[in-house]
Structure formats: C-alpha cells, structure tokens
Amino acid sequence: MALTKSASLTLGAKPPPFSLPATDGRTYTLESFPDAKALMVVFMCNHCPYVLAWLDRIALLARECAPEGLKTVGISANDPVAFPDDSFPKMKEFARQKKLPFPYLFDESQKVARAYGATCTPDIFVYDAGRRLAYHGRVDDNHEDPKQVKRQDLREALTLILAGKPAPARQEPSMGCNVKWKAS
Question: Can you tell me the mean pLDDT for 155-182?
Fold first, then answer.
C-alpha cells in the first residue's frame, strides 16, 4: 500500500459532470443536488485502510451538516477486476453494512475520477453553492486515532462554506491509497 496525497487543484473550478449508478439503484448526476448549499464529493472505496479509518468521521459530518444544506456523494473508481472487494456488488454490501448516509456511486470507466483529478482514497472535493471548488483537502490530522485529532480541517471548511464564507486558504492534501487505475 503506497501512501498517496491528493493533487493540488485550482480552487474555484467547476465540478466535472457525471452520470453514475449508485448502490441504491438510482443514477445520480450533478443536477441531482440542485438545492445544496455545498456538495461534497468523496472518492473512496471499500478496502482502503485510510477510507475505513476516516469513514465514520466523513459520515458524521455528512449527517450533521445535511440540515444546513450539505449534500454528499461517495464515488468508487477502483478497478474491480484487480480489486474484487471494490466491485459494484461489494459496494452495495459495504453501503448497507456501513449505513452510508449518502449515495455511493460506481465510476466503472474511471472517467469521472480522472476528470476530477482524484488520486487517492479518500480524496475530498467540496463545492460551494455556486458549484465552485472551495475545499480539496484532508478530513483531519490523524487517521489512526480520532481522539488525537488536533485539526478538524474538513469540519472547519464545511462550517465556513455552509455559512457562505470562503474555506481556509491553508488546505492540507488528503492522503490514502492510490486510486487503483485499470491497466492501459
């Protein structure tokens, strides 16, 4: 498992469009979230130890911030042939077991992950009400022990974005396993 950090992206960019199937049987697009004051797109997967370490914190923020206008979507783009634990049927099981409070989408072609510039899992993108990239960074400063967290980067950014304010200028990259790209 190679530790990978998220790529540096230009804040203010518009989100690339997508139309992807979800574990709940629906297909989601950017237009599926018209009233969101903020949209959090999380590139994730079922097996990554970093995703598993941060997932409860991501889900908690998704739940807590939903009444304030946050919509969240998880997207898995890992190659399901090389990593069967990340197949769509396994994603459905994972979403049920973890009681994900947001749609979990499958990017089988990996085109959406490439368009976003996703590099690791989890890789978090938060768009403001105008659908401009406002935050692209880590959940917090300690994936190993939630009790030892000193900086709650994502929580701070969401609080500001949902209040119509800019996210902090200092944004530490996400880190985790690399996206498992298909062989070319």
Answer: 95
Please report which helix (H) or strand (E) contains residue 21, including its range: strand 19-21
Overall domain count for the chain: 1
Is residue 183 one of the residues assigned to a domain? no
Domain that holds residue 56: 3-7+37-178
| SS percent in the chain: helix, strand, coil, step 5 | 30, 20, 45
Residues 131 and 39 sit within 8 Å (Cβ to Cβ): yes
**68 token code pair:** 């304030």
> What CATH number does residue 136 fall under?
3.40.30.10
Determine, yes or no, domain membership for 26: no
Q: CA-CA distance, 40 to 74, in Å (whole number)?
A: 8
Helix (H) or strand (E) holding 93: helix 88-98
Question: What's the chain's average pLDDT?
Answer: 95
Give which of 164, 179, 174, 130 is closest to 7, Cα–Cα: 174
Per-residue confidence band for 2, with pLDDT thresholds at 50, 70 and 90: low
Kindly state whether residue 29 falls inside one of the protein's structural domains: no
